[in-house]
Design brief:
- By secondary structure, the chain is an alpha/beta fold.
- Helix content is 38%, strand content 19%.
- Strand 12 and strand 13 (322-327) form a beta hairpin.
- 43% of the residues are buried.
- The structure holds adenosine-5'-diphosphate and the ligand N[C@@H](CCC(=O)OP(=O)(O)O)C(=O)O.
- The site of adenosine-5'-diphosphate has 24 residues, from helix 1 and helix 9.
- It catalyses: L-glutamate + ATP = L-glutamyl 5-phosphate + ADP.
- This is Glutamate 5-kinase.
- Residues 276-359 form the PUA domain.
């Protein structure tokens, strides 16, 4: 048995409804049983539970539209039902649950990120199972994470988890959508996530899910860079949660990468959306990737979007591939004034003296 682990289990709508328009309470009982077995073995379990919109639709007993406001209203109705069911089922095993409803705004700001992390850790320290969902009722487009796959990656980083299980209605990631291609084959293990792999991960196969495999791949890429092993598996699979800590690993496994040691850098992986992009040349890419360098103005060729000093931005190559992300020390206006310039010229170009780095190494994570 592996030593105590923190395991985040993301349960998609497809798992919680079994593909119907109602919550599958019998299957939820089975999922709770497995979570409590893990806890008995000394592990910590965190649930990221979809299903609020589905539960709301079930309550409202009439068809609603699919607009954002309709979904927010359904989620507001359904979330209460959802947490009530989880609370009652875990109580059968004498386990308490704690609800956390998050939006991206809760992690955009580092103080709020640390606050959410502390609450999560306090729940775990008191042997409580945190049950997390997006705060759909108020999550407007500007502030929402948008899908629970990416939310679960963010939670895995907040909790410093060992494993993230993305449970869905397929065995794992296939070479194409098995709903539309009977010849699609299961991919057992992923060591690199590249454009070729992203191409084969499509959207949701039903009108219930939100992100499909595309968001699961995004989530896997973020979490593994933070040192979290990710498994995509079938939520209806026998003992699927228990198997995730045995050698009989089900589904598709994404090997973890070495996590950044610095907590700030983990926040950069999980935290804010980038507000702009800086295009850098091959010399700068090599210096960042091979010499642990900061980004100097000399290596900047262009910018996209408007951003201010301190914003999170992406560093991209001339093919739009994201090389790194970090907190810029100059606004987009200033970067456009100094791009390509030698560090000694910056004071002249900006009429004030400042550091030479556009992005300092300490405020950057490589992707
Ligand atoms: N390459 C792929 N491999 C497996 N499933 C895929 C792939 N591409 C698209 N899909 C679709 O993604 C769906 C799972 O995502 P989604 O519908 O959002 O479920 P969930 O509610 O569990 O998040 C599958 O049912 C399938 O139709
Ligand atoms: N927050 C929404 C779920 C959003 C979501 O990502 O759904 P899914 O793709 O089914 O995991 C809800 O509770 O209905």
């Amino acid at each position: 048995m592996q030593r105590e682990q923190v395991i985040v289990v993301k349960l998609g709508t497809s798992v919680l409804t079994g593909g119907t328009d109602k919550l599958d309470k019998a299957h939820m009982v089975e999922l709770v049983r497995q979570c409590c077995e893990l806890k008995k073995q000394g592990h910590h379990v965190i649930l990221v539970s979809s299903g609020a919109v589905a539960a709301g639709r079930e309550q409202l007993l009439k068809l609603c539209g699919r607009s954002l406001i309709d979904k927010q209203m359904l989620a507001a109705i359904g979330q209460g039902q959802l947490i009530h069911i989880w609370q009652s089922l875990f109580a059968l095993y004498g386990v308490n649950v704690g609800q956390m409803l998050l939006t991206r705004a809760d992690v955009d700001d580092r103080e709020r990120y640390l606050n959410a992390r502390d609450t999560l850790n306090a729940l775990l320290n008191y042997d409580v199972v945190p049950i997390i969902n997006e705060n759909d009722a108020v999550a407007t487009n500007e502030i929402k994470v948008g899908d629970n796959d990416n939310l679960s990656a963010l939670v895995a980083i907040l909790a410093n988890a060992n494993k993230l299980l993305l449970l869905t209605d397929q065995e794992g990631l296939f070479t194409s959508d098995p709903r539309t291609n009977a010849d699609a084959t299961l991919i057992g293990e992923v060591t690199h996530i590249n454009d070729e792999l992203r191409q084969l991960a499509g959207g949701s196969g039903t009108n219930l899910g939100t992100g499909g495999m595309a968001t699961k791949l995004q989530a896997a890429d973020i979490a593994r860079r933070a040192g979290v092993e990710v498994i995509i598996a079938k939520g209806a699979g026998k003992n699927v949660i228990l198997k995730c800590i045995s050698d009989e690993l089900p589904g598709t496994r994404f090997l973890k990468l070495t996590a950044p040691k610095d907590g700030r850098k983990k926040w950069l992986l999980a935290g804010p959306k980038s507000t702009g992009q800086i295009v850098i040349d091959t010399g700068a890419i090599s210096a960042l990737q091979n010499k642990g360098a900061s980004l100097l103005a000399k290596g900047v060729t262009n910018t996209f979007g408007r951003f201010e000093r301190g914003d999170l931005i992406d560093l991209i190559d001339n093919k739009n591939q994201v090389i790194a992300r970090g907190l810029t020390r100059f606004s987009s206006t200033e970067v456009n004034k100094i791009k390509g310039a030698h560090s000694s010229q910056i004071g002249q170009l900006l009429d004030y003296d400042s550091g030479a780095e556009v992005l300092h190494r300490d405020d950057m994570v490589l992707l």
